[in-house]
Design brief:
transmembrane helix, HisK_dim/P_dom, Rhopdopsin 7-helix transmembrane proteins, phosphorelay sensor kinase activity, alpha+beta, Heat Shock Protein 90, rod-shaped, 5-stranded mixed sheet, Jelly Rolls, transmembrane, 18 strands, His_kinase_dom, single chain
Length: 717
C-alpha cells in the first residue's frame, strides 16, 4: 500500500511539473522576495559546453549561449551536457531588501561542480574531469554563503562535470538543482526534512516491540509458527524503517552511497510483504504453493532491478506493482477466510480496511495539503494497522491457548491428585504385600537353607562314598596283590609242617633211621623256609609301597615318578576288578616315556584320578565284552609323553564309547551312565577338579560311540 501511495505522489508531482508553463526567457532573473522554502533557480540559465576560466567573470558576454532549465531530467537536456565539462551562468538581480541580507545557495546534482559568484570561487564540490569516468560526484552540497555585494546585477556561474554511473536510469534524475534561500530558511527546511521522517522512528519502536513479543509467543508455543513468520515481518519492517530514516537524515558524500542505503530500505520493505503473506498462510492453515514461490522469484528479480537501475522509473513502477500484488494476495486470503468463517479473520480484515482508509487519506494529503510529516504519519499507519490486526489476532490466539492450557493444567492437577491418592493406596497395599512376601521369603529361605544343608551333607556323603568306592577298588587290588604271596606262605608252611612230622618219624627209628632221607627232608624244609621268607618280603614290599603313597600329607606336593605311579595304580585297578570277576581278562598295553622327569604333584590325589580313569576304562570294555561281539578283544592302553613343558598321560580303551550329548555332560557333578547303585556321578567331576584346580592342568576326553574313548591328563612340568 505504501508503494502505491508513493507512485501516486510521484505521478501528481510529474503532472504538475509538466503542466506548469515556463515563463518567457529573460536575460536577467528578477528576485524580489524569497518563498518560505527558498527559491529554486530554474529559469534564466545559459550553458556552454567546454572549459574556459574566463566564463566565470561577470563581464563575460554569454548572450550567444543557449538557455536551459537544469532542474529537468538529464534525458530531456542536450546530449552534449552528458559528457565532459560544461558551464552554466545565471544573471539575477536582487531586490534592495534582499541585498542587505545574508543569503545561501545549496545545490543537488549528479556530478561535481565549482560555484562562482561574480567571478569569485565560493565552493568546490567533488572532482571535475573531462573524462566522465574520472569524475568523483558530490550528491548534495551544504549551504554556500553568498557574499554581500553592492552590485545590482550579479552572475552565478557553475562549472559542472556530469557523473555517469554504471547504474541504469540516472538519466531520469535532475541534472542540477540550485536553491537560493536565507540561512534561517535553509536550516528550517533541513529541520522539516529530518523531522518529517520522525514517524519512522516510532515505526521502528513498534516493530521492535512486535518482534520481541511474537518471538516470545513462538518460544512459548512453537506449534503456532505464524508467530515466527510475523516476527520476521516485524523485523524486516524495523530494519527497513531504520534504514530509510538513516537515508533521510544523512548527507552522503557521494550519491552512490545514498542510493545503496535507499535500495536496502526498499528491498527490506518489499520483503516485509512476503513475510506478512507467509504469516497469513500459517494463520489460515493454508499451504504455500507455487504462487508463493513465484512471489519469492519475483522478489529476487526486483532486487536485481533495484540494484542495477535504482534511478529508472521502471524500477519504481515494478516495486509499486509488486507491493500491490502482495497486498492483493493478502486481501484475497483474508476475504476467503472471512467467508469461510474462520476464527479471527474479521480482526485481520478490519486491520486491512483501516489500512485502506489511511491510504486514501495519504492521497488526500498529497493533493489537498502537501505536508511531509503528516504524509509520513499516514504512511506509518498503513504499515502499523495491518501489523496490529495480525498481532491482535495472534495475541488473541495466544490468550485462548493460555486459557485452554490453564483448563488442562487444572484437569492435570485434579488427575494428579487422584493419581496420587491411588498411588498412596497402592503403596499401602504394596507395603502389606511386601511384608507378607518378606515373611514368605524368610520362610522359604529357611527351607532353602535347610535344603542346602541337607544337600551339602548329601554331597559330602556322596563324595565320601565315591572316595570309599575308590578305596574299595584300591583295597581289592591290594588284597589281591597280597593274597598271592600269602597263599604261597600258607602252602609252604603246611608243606613244612608235613616235612617236620616226617622228619620226626624218621628220627624216632633211632639207629635204623635213614640218614640220606633225613638230609633230604632238611634240605626241603630249608627251601620251604626260604620261599616263605621270600613271599613274606614280597607282601611286606607291597604294603610298604602303599604306605609310602598314603603317608603324603594332604595337599603336599613332591616330585613323583609318574610312570611308576601309573603302573602301580593300573595293576591295582586291574587286580581289584579281577577280584570281583575271575572271568574278566583284558589286554593291558603301556607305552611310558623313557627318562620322564619327575612331576611335582600330590601323589594320592593323582592316584585317585588314575584309579577312576582305569576303573571306567575296564568298565567300558567289560560292558562291550558282555554284548557278545564276535572277535572282540578288550584292550586298555596307557601312555605318557612329554610335550612343550607339559606331561600328557593318555588312557585309551576300545569299549562302548560315548555320544556327543554324553561327552558334553561327562564332567558335570552327579552325571553318570551307570545303572542306579553302581555309580555316584562324582568320579570324573572330582577328577577334573583335582587336575584343573589342584594342579593347574587339564583333563580332556575324545570318544566315538561304539569304538571307545580316550582321556588325556595334562600336567605342567
Amino acid at each position: 500500500m505504501r508503494f502505491l501511495l508513493l507512485l501516486v505522489a510521484c505521478g501528481l508531482l510529474f503532472l504538475s511539473a509538466a503542466a506548469a508553463p515556463l515563463p518567457a526567457d529573460t536575460a536577467i532573473l528578477q528576485v524580489s522576495r524569497l518563498p518560505a522554502k527558498g527559491l529554486l533557480l530554474k529559469q534564466g540559465w545559459r550553458y556552454q559546453v567546454g572549459d574556459n576560466p574566463q566564463w566565470a567573470r561577470p563581464d563575460f558576454n554569454d548572450s550567444a549561449w543557449d538557455t536551459i532549465n537544469p532542474t529537468r531530467p538529464r534525458r530531456e537536456l542536450p546530449a552534449a551536457l552528458g559528457s565532459g565539462i560544461s558551464w552554466l551562468r545565471l544573471h539575477f538581480r536582487l531586490a534592495d531588501s534582499l541585498r542587505q541580507q545574508e543569503l545561501v545557495v545549496n545545490a543537488r546534482l549528479l556530478g561535481a561542480c565549482d560555484i562562482y559568484l561574480n567571478g569569485q570561487l565560493l565552493a568546490h564540490q567533488g572532482t571535475l574531469d573531462a573524462n566522465p569516468a574520472q569524475v568523483q560526484p558530490q550528491g548534495w552540497t551544504g549551504p554556500v554563503v553568498l557574499p554581500k555585494s553592492a552590485r545590482a546585477e550579479q552572475v552565478l556561474a557553475v562549472r559542472y562535470a556530469p557523473w555517469q554511473p554504471l547504474l541504469r536510469g540516472s538519466s531520469y534524475s535532475p541534472q542540477l538543482a540550485v536553491r537560493l534561500s536565507s540561512p534561517p530558511q535553509y536550516w528550517q527546511g533541513e529541520a522539516r526534512r529530518k523531522g518529517a521522517v520522525a514517524p519512522f522512528l516510532v515505526l521502528v519502536g513498534i516493530s521492535a516491540l512486535l518482534t520481541l513479543l511474537h518471538l516470545a509467543f513462538f518460544r512459548y508455543n512453537p506449534a503456532q509458527r505464524a508467530n515466527l513468520y510475523f516476527a520476521g515481518f516485524a523485523l524486516t519492517v524495523l530494519l527497513g524503517s531504520l534504514t530509510y530514516y538513516y537515508y533521510s537524515v544523512s548527507d552522503f558524500p557521494a550519491p552512490v552511497f545514498g542510493m545503496s542505503v535507499l535500495t536496502v530500505a526498499r528491498t527490506l520493505g518489499i520483503m516485509s510483504g512476503l513475510w506478512s503473506m507467509r504469516a497469513l498462510y500459517a494463520l489460515f492453515t493454508l499451504r504455500p504453493g507455487r504462487l508463493y514461490a513465484a512471489f519469492w522469484v519475483g522478489y529476487g528479480a526486483l532486487v536485481v532491478l533495484l540494484i542495477l537501475a535504482p534511478y529508472h522509473p521502471a524500477a519504481l513502477l515494478a516495486m509499486v506493482g509488486f507491493g500491490i500484488l502482495t497486498t492483493a494476495e493478502q486481501l484475497r486470503m483474508t476475504t476467503q477466510a472471512m467467508r469461510q468463517g474462520k476464527r479471527g479473520a474479521g480482526i485481520i480484515g478490519a486491520g486491512y480496511a483501516c489500512e485502506l482508509l489511511a491510504g486514501f487519506a495519504c492521497i488526500g494529503v498529497i493533493v489537498l495539503y502537501p505536508n511531509g510529516l503528516l504524509l509520513n504519519l499516514l504512511l506509518m499507519l498503513t504499515s502499523v494497522l495491518r501489523a496490529l490486526g495480525i498481532s491482535l489476532f495472534l495475541a488473541r490466539e495466544f490468550a485462548l491457548d493460555s486459557q485452554l492450557l490453564q483448563v488442562k493444567l487444572s484437569e492435570v492437577e485434579r488427575l494428579s491428585a487422584q493419581t496420587l491418592a491411588q498411588e498412596q493406596d497402592k503403596q499401602a497395599l504394596l507395603a502389606a504385600q511386601n511384608e507378607t512376601l518378606e515373611q514368605q521369603v524368610q520362610q522359604r529361605t529357611e527351607q532353602l537353607q535347610r535344603s542346602l544343608t541337607d544337600l551339602r551333607a548329601t554331597q559330602a556323603q556322596l563324595i565320601q562314598k565315591e572316595k570309599m568306592a575308590s578305596l574299595g577298588e584300591l583295597t581289592a587290588g591290594i588284597a589281591h596283590e597280597i593274597q598271592n604271596p600269602l597263599n604261597f606262605v600258607t602252602n609252604f608252611s603246611d608243606l613244612s609242617s608235613e616235612l617236620v612230622a616226617e622228619l620226626r618219624e624218621e628220627q624216632a627209628k633211632g639207629v635204623a633211621a635213614d640218614a640220606a632221607l633225613q638230609e633230604e627232608l632238611f634240605e626241603d624244609l630249608t627251601q620251604n623256609l626260604d620261599k616263605i621268607g621270600h613271599h613274606g618280603r614280597r607282601a611286606a614290599g607291597i604294603v610298604k609301597g602303599m604306605l609310602e603313597h598314603s603317608q603324603t600329607s594332604a595337599g603336599e606336593r613332591r616330585p613323583t615318578n609318574l610312570n611308576a605311579l601309573t603302573e602301580e595304580y593300573l595293576r591295582l585297578a586291574y587286580q581289584g576288578l579281577r577280584a570281583k570277576d575271575k572271568s574278566f581278562n583284558v589286554e593291558l598295553t603301556t607305552d611310558f616315556a623313557i627318562g620322564l622327569t619327575p612331576v611335582t604333584m600330590v601323589g594320592p590325589d593323582v592316584g585317585r584320578v588314575l584309579l577312576n580313569l582305569f576303573t571306567n576304562a575296564f568298565y567300558a570294555v567289560r560292558q562291550r565284552q558282555q554284548q557278545g561281539e564276535a572277535g572282540y578283544q578288550p584292550t586298555v592302553r596307557v601312555s605318557t609323553q612329554q610335550v612343550e613343558g607339559q606331561v600328557h598321560l593318555r588312557v585309551q580303551d576300545n569299549g562302548t564309547g560315548m555320544s556327543q550329548a554324553v561327552r558334553e555332560k561327562i564332567f558335570q557333578p552327579f552325571f553318570t551312565t551307570k545303572p542306579p547303585g553302581e555309580g555316584t556321578g562324582l568320579g570324573l567331576s572330582l577328577s577334573y577338579d583335582i587336575i584343573a584346580q589342584g594342579h593347574g592342568g587339564g583333563l580332556a576326553v575324545e570318544s566315538q560311540e561304539g569304538h571307545g574313548s580316550e582321556f588325556t591328563i595334562s600336567l605342567p612340568h
